Backbone:
């Protein structure tokens, strides 16, 4: 007896046992019925008490073959028998019998027999199975990948999305790999460390963590992971479960967005600077023309002392230089007239190289040409395009400081119908902090007087006006590569002359 009870408590307990709508018998170890509740008595005669249960309930002379009492006596533990009533004509076949011991000290003094409604139990079991199947379906058809593993790392759940992202079949994942194969290197341990820490969404939880998963073929897949620890009713860790999705599309889109933003910003900057440059150039053009004209007039019409002529010649030279800069500015702002004609890019490049290669700066520079055999024409202004290649090649020569290799390659990218040109050098490359600025007007890293910083911005402007693009790639110490693309001219007539 666990507790001392008052008489009224005992009376309530007795009432409760009688009110209980299942049959309850108390039976001695030698099968004598010691007591029975009201429900048990209702289905039988009142003189149950004192008789053997097999005789009183089943009309048998011997104890039933499936009697749970023997097992309870032997093990000292409760027992559930589904089949006990099955051969009985007196009892409903669907009943089962639950039997458990009543101890006096450490000896079993009697047994409680309690019948159960099997269909009700069965129903519960079916509902449990159904709900398990529903949960399984839910996990398997989830959009997110789901992987659960036990504390040793063995994989317990691996759904279809996980199959798709990581390339393992479910069977393979459950039997042949562990969670350590899913998160390469120290990944699995790192996830566990964070799960156990306060700092990442609370102990036992991890939210939106970016980590690499490893595909069956070895590829690393960037994923975003939500994970948690699964505890049992006693608070023991039984599993970890992770929900994750592939971030590759997300990363690609983000990159594209960033590129577009950079291009937009660049285009905007170029447009406003272009306008400003054009305005300033126009303002300067007229007074410069006046200075040049009147200086020439003075020099022609007056008999000037030699020194004055020398000074005026300086004035004239400087004014001419200023006019040249204005011209460049106007070109940069595309205020000069463009003459668009069908052009062969290979020819333009060859002409540019021919002009440059005899200059002293190119003497120790090896120029490697890999020009496509025949290229479809593009529509362009020969002089401006000449300017483009001249600027890029001169920049390359500057970077090589007279020594190294300059490579020029052209080809036709048929799938996008564009002419591609790559110009690379084996120079020192462009540092990461310089690279984003090289197309900006007046941006130069060269010492004062050596570079105006207008070269590449002009290149950019000219290519843009030809419907083309340019980008630079450079890894520190590994040289620089400029990739240019220009659209192939639409509907070229056969008889149209190129050049
Ligand atoms: N091939 C290259 N290797 C290394 N750096 C380069 C290369 N091409 C360009 N650059 C960098 O880009 C900057 C801008 O080039 P850009 O041609 O616009 O101006 P610049 O050459 O300095 O002057 P200029 O107006 O006389 O051409 C250069 O100052 C240099 O720092
Ligand atoms: Mg330059």
Residues:
């Amino acid at each position: 007896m666990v507790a001392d009870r008052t008489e009224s408590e005992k009376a309530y307990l007795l009432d409760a046992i009688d009110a209980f709508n299942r049959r309850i018998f108390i039976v001695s170890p030698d099968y004598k019925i010691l007591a029975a509740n009201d429900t048990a008595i209702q289905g039988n005669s009142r003189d149950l008490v004192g008789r053997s249960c097999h005789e009183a309930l089943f009309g048998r002379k011997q104890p039933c073959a499936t009697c749970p009492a023997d097992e309870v006596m032997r093990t000292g533990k409760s027992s559930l028998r589904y089949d006990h009533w099955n051969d009985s004509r007196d009892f409903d076949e669907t009943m089962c019998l639950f039997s458990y011991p009543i101890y006096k000290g450490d000896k079993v003094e009697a047994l409680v027999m309690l019948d159960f409604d099997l269909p009700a139990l069965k129903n519960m079991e079916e509902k449990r199975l159904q709900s398990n199947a529903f949960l399984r379906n839910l996990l398997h058809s989830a959009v997110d990948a789901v992987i659960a593993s036990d504390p040793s790392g063995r994989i317990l759940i691996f759904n279809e999305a996980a199959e798709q992202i990581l390339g393992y079949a479910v069977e393979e994942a459950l039997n042949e790999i562990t969670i350590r194969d899913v998160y390469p290197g120290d990944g699995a341990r790192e996830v566990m460390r964070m799960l156990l820490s306060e700092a990442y969404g609370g102990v036992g939880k991890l939210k939106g963590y970016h980590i690499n998963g490893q595909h069956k073929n070895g590829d690393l897949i960037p994923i975003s992971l939500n994970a948690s620890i699964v505890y049992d009713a006693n608070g023991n860790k039984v599993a970890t479960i992770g929900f994750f999705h592939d971030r590759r599309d997300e990363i690609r889109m983000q990159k594209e967005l960033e590129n577009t933003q950079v291009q937009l910003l660049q285009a905007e900057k170029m447009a406003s600077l272009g306008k400003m440059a054009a305005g300033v150039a126009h303002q300067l053009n007229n007074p410069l023309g006046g200075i040049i004209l009147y200086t020439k007039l003075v020099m022609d019409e007056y008999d000037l002392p030699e020194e004055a002529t020398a000074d005026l010649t300086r004035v004239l030279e400087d004014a001419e230089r200023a006019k040249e800069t204005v011209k460049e500015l106007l070109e940069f702002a595309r205020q000069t007239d463009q003459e668009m004609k069908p052009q062969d890019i290979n020819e333009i490049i060859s002409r540019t190289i021919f002009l440059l290669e005899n200059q002293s700066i190119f003497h120790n520079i090896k120029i490697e040409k890999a020009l496509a055999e025949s290229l479809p024409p593009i529509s362009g202004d020969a002089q401006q395009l000449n300017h483009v290649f001249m600027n890029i090649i001169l920049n390359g020569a500057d970077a090589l400081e007279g020594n190294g290799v300059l490579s020029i390659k052209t080809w036709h990218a048929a799938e996008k119908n564009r002419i591609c040109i790559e110009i690379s050098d084996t120079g020192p490359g462009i540092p990461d902090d310089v690279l984003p600025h090289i197309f900006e007007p007046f941006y130069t890293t060269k010492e004062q007087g050596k570079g105006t910083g207008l070269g590449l911005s002009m290149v950019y402007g000219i290519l843009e006006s030809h419907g083309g693009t340019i980008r630079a790639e450079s890894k520190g110490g590994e040289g620089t590569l400029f990739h240019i693309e220009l659209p192939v001219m639409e509907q070229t007539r056969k008889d149209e002359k190129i050049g």
Summary: The CA atoms of residues 257 and 431 lie 23 Å apart.
